Structure formats: structure tokens, C-alpha cells
């Protein structure tokens, strides 16, 4: 399974993904699910992937091949973020058709993506691209998008994320969301990749790759757990509890 998320705040974008693609009692594979495409000073894209690994790898490969083909549509030539999302969606649907056409085992080749970034002259944004190739955009009321195993990490995003949140606070929130998912679902696992894009920079920002024994990641996880325990202890007491206020 997979968990990836992107957050859009006024200061920029945050991207976070796990790296586990197969889990079992004695078999675990890890592959990066975060892919960046940067034309410094002109455009920046980050692509998060979930679903069939063969499909996602071919889509990323074709995206990179198109960058080297002057006559082809590519992330360097699309006129807008929406057009970039449409282009990635078309590529994904096409790859799935090809994969399914030569399959005899009824394999599911579906894949989902989150594409985020900025093109010079536009505002930053993030898009969720469905297996069918269609997509949705984040909004001010819902400034984050998720793919994969999303339910465990969603509560903190719903409660905390808003456009005015600082970029670093949004990044910490993303790590807590990821940690909550990892604790509840063994098919999601490290290394965790975190990417920060600062609005209007049009270049690669800070990036981290965190294992479960990384001191910073452990401090985030332990601090969140301790904070939850304190918050629970500070909640109002029932009337029948000793020492409860009337």
C-alpha cells in the first residue's frame, strides 16, 4: 500500500510520501514515490504516485523521455498547471490501456497521482489525478490532497491545515499524518520523503529522507504522542469523577 499527501499553504507546498511498495512477513520492497521535475526560474513540479508500480514507473519514464524530445508535449511545454495535470492523466490512462491489453491474468494496473508545483506567472497548486485520467484541484476550504491509505492520517489534516499555516508547521503536520498512518497500517513504511517548495522560488526546496530511527523523525513522533497524552489528561472530567468541578 501507499500513503502520499500534498499540502498547499500561502507560503508554498509540502509533499510527503512513504516508500513501501510490498509488505509481508518476510518480503518488503521500497521505491521512491516522489519525483521532481525542475526548470530553474521557470517551473517546478513534484509528482507523487500510488498504485500499480509498473504503471507508475512507466508514466515517470515517459514524462522524462518527453522532456528530451523537442517535438513532444512535455512538462516543459504545457501552458498551465491544469494542462500539466491533464497531460499526466492522459499518459497514465494510456499506459494502463497498453498494460491491460497484453495481460492475461486480470491484473489491476490502476495508478493515482498528486501533481503539484508552479509555472512562472501562475500561483502554486496541487492536483489529484485519478486512474481514469480526470483530476481535481485543492481549494481554500480543503488545502490538502491524499492518495493511498489516507484515512489514518486525515484527522490531523482536517483539524490543523489551513492556508495561513506556516510552511514548516505544514511540513510537521505532514510528518505526523504519515507517522499516524504507519503506526496503524504496516503496509505503509519508511523511508519517508518530505519535500518543501517555497512559493515563487521556481526551484527545488528543502528535501528530507527519513528512516524510522532518524532522531528528528523520532522526536516528531514522540512529541506528538506525548502531546496527545497531555491533551487527553487535560480534558474535562465526568461529573462522577473525584475532584471534578461542578
UniProtKB/TrEMBL annotation:
Gene Ontology CC annotation, any one: proteasome core complex
InterPro entries noted in UniProt: Ntn_hydrolases_N, Proteasome_sua/b, UCP009120_prtse
Domain of life: Bacteria
GO BP term, pick one: proteolysis involved in protein catabolic process
Name this protein carries in UniProt: Peptidase
Species classification: Bacteria, Pseudomonadati, Pseudomonadota, Acidithiobacillia, Acidithiobacillales
